[in-house]
């Protein structure tokens, strides 16, 4: 059973989203504010497949709640509901938000985004453990190890590395990377890719050159494995 948490202080929005999710066969949990959302996650973290958070909520807003949630799980997908377009994009991306959806909610758009995110998430967690030289990537546990040390990657840094791994020794454009990792409906720009590649390279330290820049095009993950 797919379990989804919807957190929004607006009762009408909560009921609208809950009804949509229930019609699609999902089990729905509701939270009326950020604190309520954190309590729900505490009790149900192992069962949650997706979290939908309103950006503006009393007690604790969406970003505040998500910071807490990410301490418990770096892997559960998250959607942020917003009325401010991409104004919250930068801090949200750092916390591993998979998508932003503006209010008032279009049920068809929300449904399509949810299906897309859950499909991608299910495909990733069913993958095998793979060894790449000194690296071990465990997609079920969503962990990356370098020798005997685990790398502390953000959600998007992890997904970016997995995408490079799945396309090793192939030049991929920034557009392809953006669509694969952030989704076709993502409204951010190509600079998002460059920013995350820079941060990922920094964490790879002595192995940063595995991610090679293809000038004027994109990147290539170069490995002999």
Q: Could you explain how this protein is built, in words?
A:
- It is built from eight helices and twelve strands.
- Strand 8 (143-146) and strand 9 form a beta hairpin.
- The model has no long low-confidence stretch (mean pLDDT 85).
- The strands form three sheets. It has a five-stranded parallel β-sheet, sandwiched between helices.
- It has helices at 11-23, 34-44, 62-72, 89-94, 107-125, 155-166, 174-182, 191-204, and strands at residues 3-7, 27-31, 48-54, 78-82, 99-102, 129-132, 135-138, 143-146, 149-150, 171-173, 211-214, 218-221.
- The protein is of the alpha/beta class.
- Helix 2 packs parallel to helix 3 (62-72).
- The protein folds into two domains: 3-124, Rossmann fold (3-Layer(aba) Sandwich), CATH 3.40.50; 128-221, Orthogonal Bundle (Arc Repressor Mutant, subunit A), CATH 1.10.10.10.
- The protein is globular.
Short key terms for the protein model shown above:
alpha/beta, Rossmann fold, Arc Repressor Mutant, subunit A, 2 domains, five-stranded parallel β-sheet, 42% helix
What is the architecture of the largest domain at the second tier of CATH?
3-Layer(aba) Sandwich
Shape: globular
The stretches of 5 or more residues where confidence is low (pLDDT under 50) are none
In total, the number of domains comes to 2
What's the name of the CATH homologous superfamily of the largest domain?
Answer: Response regulator
Report on the biggest sheet. Answer: 5 strands, parallel
Number of strands: 12
């Amino acid at each position: 059973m797919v379990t989804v948490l919807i957190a929004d202080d607006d009762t009408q929005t909560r009921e609208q989203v809950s009804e949509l999710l229930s019609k699609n066969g999902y089990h729905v949990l509701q939270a009326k504010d950020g604190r309520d959302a954190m309590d729900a996650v505490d009790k149900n973290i192992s069962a949650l497949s997706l979290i939908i958070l309103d950006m503006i909520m009393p007690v604790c807003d969406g970003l505040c709640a998500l910071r807490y949630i990410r301490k418990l799980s770096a892997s559960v997908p998250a959607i942020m509901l917003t009325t401010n377009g991409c104004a919250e994009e930068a801090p949200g991306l750092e916390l591993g938000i998979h998508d932003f959806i503006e209010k008032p909610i279009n049920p068809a758009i929300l449904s399509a985004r949810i299906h897309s995110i859950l499909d991608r998430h299910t495909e990733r967690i069913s993958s095998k453990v793979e060894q790449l030289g000194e690296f071990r990537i465990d997609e079920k546990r969503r962990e990356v190890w370098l020798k005997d040390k685990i790398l502390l990657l953000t959600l998007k840094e992890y997904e970016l590395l997995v995408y490079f791994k799945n396309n090793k020794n192939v030049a991929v454009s920034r557009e392809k990377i953006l669509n694969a990792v952030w989704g076709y409906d993502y409204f951010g720009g190509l600079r998002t890719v460059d920013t995350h590649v820079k941060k990922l390279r920094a964490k790879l330290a002595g192995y940063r050159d595995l991610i090679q820049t293809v000038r004027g095009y994109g990147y290539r993950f170069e490995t002999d494995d």
